[in-house]
Design a protein that fits this description.
heterotetramer, A: alpha+beta, Uridine Diphospho-n-acetylenolpyruvylglucosamine Reductase, domain 2, Uridine Diphospho-n-acetylenolpyruvylglucosamine Reductase, domain 3, Enolase-like, domain 1, 3 domains, five-stranded antiparallel β-sheet, four-stranded antiparallel β-sheet, 14 strands, 35% helix, D: alpha+beta, Ubiquitin-like (UB roll), DNA polymerase, domain 1, 2 domains, five-stranded mixed β-sheet, 17% strand
Amino acid sequence: MKPAPLEYLAPSTAEEAVAALARFDGNARLLAGGQSLVPLLSMRLLRPTAVIDINGIPGLDRIAAGDGVIRVGALARYSALEASATIHERVPLLARAVPFVGDRQIRNRGTLGGALCHADPAGEMPLCAVTLGARMRIVGRTGRRELDAEAFFQGPYTTALEPTEMLEAVEFPDGASTEAVVVEHARRHGDFAVVSVAATGLPVPDGSWRWIRIGLGAVSDRARYARRASEGLAGTRLQPADVDAAAARCLEEAEPASDVRASAEYRRHLVPILVERALGELARRRQ
Amino acid sequence: MDKLPWLGASVKRKEDDRLLRGSGRFLDDVEETLALHLAIARCPYPHARIRRVDATRALECSGVEAVLTGEQVVARTEPITVLRPFPGSAPTVFHGMAHEVARYEGEPVVAVAAVDRYVAEDALELVDIDYEPLPHVVTVEDALRPGAPQLHATVPSNVVVESTVRAGEPDRRLADAAATVEGTFRINRVSGAPIETRGVIARWVEDTSTLELVSSTQTPHLLRAQLAHCLRMDETDVRVIAPDVGGAFGLKIGVYPEDIIAALVAIDTGRPVKWIEDRTEFFRGAAHAREAVHALTLGADGAGTLLVLRDRYLIDLGAYHGPLGPPLLTSIMLAGPYRLHDALIHRRVVLTNKVPMGAYRGYGQAESNYVREVLVDRLARRLGQDPADFRRKNLLRPDELPYKNVSGVTYDSGDYARALDLALSRVGYETFRARQKECRQQGRHVGVGMSCYVEFTGYPSSAFLGRTGARFGAYESVTLRMDRAGRAAISTGVSTFGQGTETTFAQVAASLLGLDPGDVAIHRGDSQGTPYSVGGFASRTMIAGAGAIEKAAGQIRDKMLRIAGHILDVDATALEATAGVVRRRDDPSVHVSIKRVSESAFLGHPLPPGEDPGLEATAYFDPPSSAFGYGTVVAQVEVDPRSGEFALQRYVLVHDCGTQVNPMIVEGQVQGAVAQGIAAALFEELVYDRDTGQLVNGTMVDYFMPTAADLPAFELDHLETPSPVTPFGIKGVGEGGTIAAAAAITNAVCDALAPFGVELDRLPVTAESIWRALARARAKR
Amino acid sequence: MQVKETFTVSAPPAAVWKFFEDIERVARCVPGVQSVDVLGPDRYKVLATQKVGFISATFEMATQIESRDPLRSLALASVGKSVKGAVGNLRSKDRVDFEPTPEGGTRVTLTSELAVGGMLGALGHKAIASKSKEITEKFAQALQAELRADETGR
Amino acid sequence: MSARVTVTVRVNGRAYERVVESRRLLVDFLRHELQLHGTHVGCEQGVCGACTVLLDGEPVKSCLMLAPQAHGRSITTVEGLAGRSELHPVQQAFRDAHALQCGYCTPGFLLGAVALANRGVALEGVALREELAGNLCRCTGYQNIVEAIERYLRQAAGGRRDG
């Protein structure tokens, strides 16, 4: 199928982009990487009046460190994240998650901001954002605001963005010495996760762990930070009992649905298995 | 001298150069000036009454030139014929477009022709169609329930045909059997899913009042015959051209509704009309395949001799007979490569509100192999025998061939047990059991599974097909013509869709004419200028095509020798054609080039007295018998019994397709078929929602075709037993690789999980299905 | 997919039935309904917008009352396609059953069978299931509110 | 701001300028505006990779871009690989390894492989298979494609070292 008629705009600043959104009164869509948007246009599941291409906005793809955060522009492509030493060293979870996304071509075009705004409950980028407690920097008609990742995702493919707002950048805490793991079960390579688990934490010389955070993907209507499970692991040495308890708590936080990839029951079955796998891998990483 | 120098040579493919450069010519690469592009409104419901169609607003759109409705199509055309119906089938009237009632989601209802596909799709949104959804049924079990929605007035029970094959005394054998096992198996609905979808361009040629159809098809001549019938035209007034075809796999056989639609719009508008299937249409319009439910029973005596097979199965036909019809080979090949005299096979072909079923590589054979080989393993386990030993004992021996199986077809040749032993030795089966035990002690669950197959390739004869109600013959044909430069050209109605026919046909002709394959051009896939042809399917092209080439080339070669004899003043019987020359067999220094001989033939002089000019022959070859390929797959897996996740660690296939014309191409065919076998076994399934009757995963995003990263490297080996019943001993090879995959992997998983007593009985095999089977097995204990 | 919702109101079946005779008013209790036009006896044109995630669609539907069993049940059938937003088709069969309660009130059972056709239905399969549950729940709540308003107003 | 836009683009080293509807997919632009039919359409859903082209040297799926997005960019399609007579080394490797059958998916794989060579990545085995996961092939079972690309990448790396 082919897209319905649309107008094409290529603003050169975020402000222009936001103004254009307002002008079309909610009937325009921002085009970042386009890897989810364009097929939806082609299938005519979206028929916007206009598409606002933000790829020409300078600096929107910048990756920069400072003030205890790593700030990643919304237009940073997966391939840029893959290639970035800053990301590998200081947001290692993102680096580990990116290879699970789509395929080479998708990663060459797809963007961090696009994936976050698409808010796929099985997406790796929302998973990383909630797991790391990222801050979303949003620009609107009247100025800028910030939101926690957890508040940003509001449901399946639904975010807190107003129709005239745009995600400008994402700030991840500078996790220079943390370890990170992503494990997934998928039906085929690069496919949407049936269940995904992200885990990150700081190994302390005394053998314990600090700041362990676990995230769950594809088991809820949005990416989930497993708060209770994570908080329960304060100071853990990741002994089996702690791991089991965390896995059990993660299961409590999962409310999966059935779809063509897997049933809800099987997703529930996988949650503790993958959490154990992720924490086991995390424990191995300190060696 | 080697008599057939190019037979058995891995000649690089003639097709490759253009395809590698991107200068192949696929359907959508054919650009016509002033073409109209079709977009088709398809019924969004599984079953609906079409109360009203109003295309007024669509016709008013700028750029829209024509609209075609089901009412017009039904009035102006005949229903689609069925090439190979199940004998005794009730008819299901299937037109190019639905009128009054649509019976599957995706059935064409209205077509809009516009200057461009984008505009046509815009206009489609303005077509008003008033649907009244009707009750639907999307499983065979539901279709058989009393009071089930009825699809066709001609088929009150939703069963288009029910029939039984009986051999020997199955009931008595079942009563006598020391051990019997039963299983109910569900085979998934899948798609051949070529990367190029279907497509068609129709042109009305005013001067000659003829229709030209360019179509991405495997069977130009059969498509022409079916299309002419639908359009109430003479076959000779229709020309069908197949360009390069981007994969077909059985799905592109015969006429489809869109061929008819495009033709009608072309006739109405006088302009070329193009329709390119998009992928969302593809999953709702191109043939689906394989879906069936089998209730199979096997019985053996206490020593492990297979005694009897009983199968009751249901084929899910979808809403109509498609252009080809449901698979007949399922029952014909149920007995497989085993010695078996007693069988009862009861089959029903059932209607559901789904896309009509068609062929997919391994048509019917993949289905019967899966159910039989999985149950053979269970039977061996029941008897406490090793599955390899059990098979070896029951496999037909070379000295028992030819052997007529319980369904009446005759296996020609081969050494079935040798293929099994070779495959087993590749995975070190002798020591595997010990390793398996060690692994289990370490908590690792590895397993090996095997699956033996025998494969029906080609058709036995046109007479055989006639007896079973087919509307086509078993033959193939070529016109072979030399030119003045001494090169040859073959005209064949077979189209090219990846199987390497251009190369292998050239190899056969070159071998017989004393030429280099590079000197043999292939003109293919055009019904005009090629003799009547059947087409490329059923692993038949090479067998039947080689026979036709042999006959035509024989005639030409004899004439070349006579002309050369005249030129050289040597008796023709003393000459041979080889390496570009005709020469004395006993004195190669006496020779004349084939170029010179050809020149004489086309100049008309010098020629022997009474000899006609020209070097051209047309030949038809009707194979007297089918050839049966065979082989064994051995798969090795490791399974995580907690999650059900598994890894396919090794995949070994040993096969025999008789004489190999081009071993490189044979290997490629087998690898590709293996990948499709594994795809259907582990990944793919077209899922319908029972409540809404809709296909829930009709996109490439949700239909899980495996990527390179999802498949292991395959380990292939082959035997080469020339068939005694075909030209050059060739057996077909296109399909074999698909046949044994599902059973081998299923058996490997069950073997790995034998301590849990796991039995798998549905496809695809997924981590979740294994987890569920584990849960069932645990509950049983 | 089928969705079922049951609730009880204190008004007797006769009063509830009377309310349901006014289809336009009933239709306005369905979330997303923008307009209801009378096409003929028991035939209506309904315009409604629904949003699931980033996809929204406005459907134009022909709704017909299929059967009436006074004081006991009412059955409606709707078929339509989207006129704005995502391309798609929609059909629903809705049934309302009324049962007197021992306390003199009415137990109302809504049964909705919804199918969305085309790519929208296929892609949004799961989301639509939860959406239709949500719509039915909200419809039930709105009906209760209207019926109770009638009661208190009387 | 318009439903039609001017697209100026370099394809295989040659400059083109066309006015097109802004909704036109890049793959349709290449195939039907520029008549470069070597780039194929397999799904328009961003899965099969048959429409892969190089955008400023990196493989992308041209069914996932609107034509105006290519404005000012440089694109390589399969037509840009070989000279008039000689095949490009990756094409030769495919021919030698029998890495194509129907040939429909082939251009996408070729361009992906060329991009790998340009990046100087000599992948093999599983890692290479994962790198190729954005291209579906239905004919070959991938084995010969993997072999052909392994061979080509080794050769390309060797060539660089020697050069």
